[in-house]
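Following up on my earlier thread - several people asked me to post the actual chain instead of describing it. Fair enough. Here it is, all 499 residues.
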Amino acid sequence: MHPIGLLYLITASLLALYGLNGLALSLLYLTHRHQRVPTPPLEGAPRVTVQLPIYNEAHVVQRLIDAAAVLDYPPHRLEIQVLDDSTDETTALARARVAFHRARGVDITLLHRQERSGFKAGALAEGMRQARGEFIAIFDADFLPPRDFLQRTIPHFRDQPRLGLIQARWGHLNGAYSPLTRAQALILDGHFGVEQWARNRSGLFVNFNGSAGVWRRAGIKEAGGWRGETICEDMDLSYRAQLAGWECLYLPHIQAPAELPPQIQALKRQQFRWAKGATQCLLRLAPRLLRAPIPLAQQIEGLLHLSGYLIHPLILGLLLLSLPLLWGDIHLGRAVSYLGLAGLGPLLLFALGQQALYPDWPRRLLALPLVLLLGMGIAVNNTWAVVEALLGRHSPFQRTPKFRVESSRDHWAGSRYTLPWDRITWAEMGAALYALAALGVAWVHGAWGAIPFLLLYLISFACVGGLSLWHGRPRRPASGPQSARHSRMATAGSAAVRR
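Reply from S.P.:
Thanks for posting it. Predicted structure:
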């Protein structure tokens, strides 16, 4: 076989492996979907520390603190830590809100660090050194923890001394805000509705998702604590804890809603961090995983889980190989067509996620084409993240901007947290032109079977690149209720600083 054809076949086979893994997880979910974990009654009320790590979150910090302050748990057994690394008016807003709730009798403190060493992992570690809780609940700035969250999670720890982590399901405050947020919601529902359930109920490794979870303090300590060597400190700690013999429990019936990024640059930054961090975890943890005295199935699924973002370099690689393949009129036979069927695995997983969570799931599946476009179109962004991780290039933990966008009446474009387009945007447009060139060659050579896939590449990269240019264009400050609310926050922050 021609070398280019062989390389294409290897790339397609590796990509099919991840597709088949999605199919396997779907089947595991169907096998275990009726398993329910009833909530035992709360007895004794162990001491709990709620940690709220924030960094420049002026739009949402008050909402987060207010929600945490009304958690339904015995007040004398609960403390709240606002772990603030901010460099803007967020600190003043948080300090004022903390003072308000302290005056109401809430045990809440603000811990502000001047040096952002270790990023989020460093903030969590610093907070834990001062925490008094036996259990640590964590909520990121874009979350809205439900009042009964602790009442429904903490009791599970009582009779399971090796239970180190409970992860709840992420909900969506703005899932219907735009086509972009609809696609994100569907993808996350596949993860939380199917993947986490299937892995946890089948005895496979699961990951802490960084928020809406509760840790046993002893589990964090025995696993080696929070570490800043990766920018996915949540996945890193959860795998180290499970390798140390601690158990995890996923509770999909407990939902903590969060804000989805409404700006595509914010989503791409989030995806970049997740892709690079997960690959860093793969490099750090794969040797330990392969040496661990655990079943082979756990090892294989763990490796596929940690390496999941390698899908994006493989997607991009197929596009890059397609042009010389078509130009050289190199034939691969029917093998590639059969491998393409593995792509049905993720689609089934996403469909099952909607069916598991929503009564109107058939209507929600109308957003599935958006998922395909987003999943392929973001490949350039995530490939660069994976390459940086493989090359050992260090980069700071870049936060995902939050805008407090909850309904169609809210706007994000007037916020100074909006992100401009960057060089990856031009690479995405270049990938779209490359797909167009390959499409032209396929048309000339009569390679009709390749045309639908190349057309999907073209539309995906053009949509993501074009939307990045549109969302990242220079704007005037927005007007309306949302901009007025942002202005009031900034004014309140400035006043608090003067006081």
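The two ends are 75 Å apart (CA to CA). That should answer part of your original question.
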